[in-house]
Amino acid sequence: MIRKLRFFCFILLPAGLLLSVTSPVFYFEEAEQFSCVNYEFNIVENTTALENYHIALDQLIEQKKDKVRIAHIGDSHIQADYLTNVTRKKLQKLYGNGGRGYLFPYRLIRSNNPPNIRISREGEWSGCTSTSYRTHCNFGLCGASATTYDSTATLKINPNRWEDMNYEFNQLDLFHFGHSNEMSFRLLDSDSSALDVDIQKESESVSSVHFTEYQDSLWLGFEKLRDRSYAQLFGMSFENDHPGLIYDAIGLNGAHVASYLRNQFFDEQLKLLEPDLIIITLGTNDGYMSGSRFCSGCFKNNYSKLLSKVREHNPNASIMLTTPGDYYRRRRYHDSHQRSIVRAIRELAVEHQAAIWDYNRIMGGDYSIKAWLRQGLARKDLIHYTEKGYKLQGELLFDALMKSKELHEDPSLQGAGFLHRSEP
Fold first, then answer.
1. 266 touches 140 (CB < 8 A)
2. Where are the alpha helices (DSSP H) in 194-287?
């Protein structure tokens, strides 16, 4: 079915020229719509909770602020960086490209990398994640850590594998653990020679680097100063000095709310990012269990603890919760806990003054994942999505965020027709 879709566009003009955001610009394009999606529900609820984020966008447009940052925290849907990459690119085309943002080199721990980055490595590496309670590692922002004891180990990351966006960088934040008098990082050039750069220690687990010239890749080496010394990586953030928006994808396969509570350096590292908006997409793995093992009260209690920590260390950030999509366990059993999880998330949004994007309702609610499968949007595991499905999800999120921005500019639009999809 083909329908007219309405999108919302802000135009960024050169320095000295401002566009009045009280007179929004609209554009139309033909796009495929799917009968399984409840487009009329694709809105952000409790948009007043996004006030600080909207003000930050206004300041960026008015050249009173250099960067706006969104940190999107979640599970495997976020680690893959399909939906987040769609939303990231659309927002950056409107508000400017502030950099690639946070990423973790998942290949080092034998997991799937986002397809838009290229990673190569040498030497011996090991990894662990906070989703496994049998491991006792240090964990950073996303709950994954890569460790090396090998002084010959190297890591090269190219955030520009897809050339549709330019993610060259001249600022770098390294999230790591290790004592500088035991094993230190070295930044290498194409000839494996050490670059002459000053690495500044920002906190116990974060170091920053400013390059005099833009870089298209990061090449890390290590210098071992003592036997049995090691270095642990928790990720890095690639940024530039241009005004614009940064969209971090902070995800981990199998992550649930309690696993994020295990990340020792989560608070410290999220605070350093200084996000204007924090989106949390959790709940799928929390309910992926038999009825006798699931504890609705435990889920809500843990999620409340996480939100309290996020709010305490990021008091000026807006927070938006998303509900998990419909799914089956082992492709056979429709998960009976979804309604409890969605209800708990909606209650938490009220209790913690957060906005909510009810993706579960938008995608169609109970049993809708099979409709998504029939339309080529979901994978056969009935949990994850195809690239086409993630693209649709990213576009829906972008559209909902833009409509919330329009409502911020003109509250009288609440309930107006343009906030909902309509027949042509």
1. yes
2. 257-261, 266-273, 284-287
Whether the Cβ atoms of residue 141 and residue 176 lie closer than 8 Å to each other? no
Altogether, the residues listed in the chain come to a count of 424
Each residue of 325-363: pLDDT tens digit?
Answer: 998 987 777 777 889 999 999 999 999 999 999 999 999
Q: What is the DSSP letter of 186?
A: E
Q: How far is CA 285 from CA 65, 76, 254, 347, 358, in A?
A: 37, 9, 6, 19, 17
Task: Tell me the sheet residues that pair with 306.
Answer: none
pLDDT digits (tens, 9 = 90+) for 56-107: 999 999 999 999 999 999 999 999 999 999 999 999 999 999 999 999 999 9
Q: Which residues contact 145 (CB under 8 A, 6 or more apart)?
A: 109, 127, 128, 129, 137, 138, 139, 177, 232, 233, 234
Place of tokens 């435990």: 298
Task: Quote the CA–CA distance of 10 and 45 in Å, as a whole number.
Answer: 22
Distance CA 231, CA 153 (A): 10
Amino acid identity, residue 184?
S
The dihedral sign for the CA sequence 240, 241, 242, 248: positive
Beta strand 244-251 with 67-74 is: parallel
Beta pairing class for 101-103 and 355-357: unpaired
Torsional class of 250: left (φ above 0), alpha (ψ -120 to 50), beta (otherwise): beta
Residue 292: count other Cβ atoms within 10 Å of its Cβ. Answer: 6
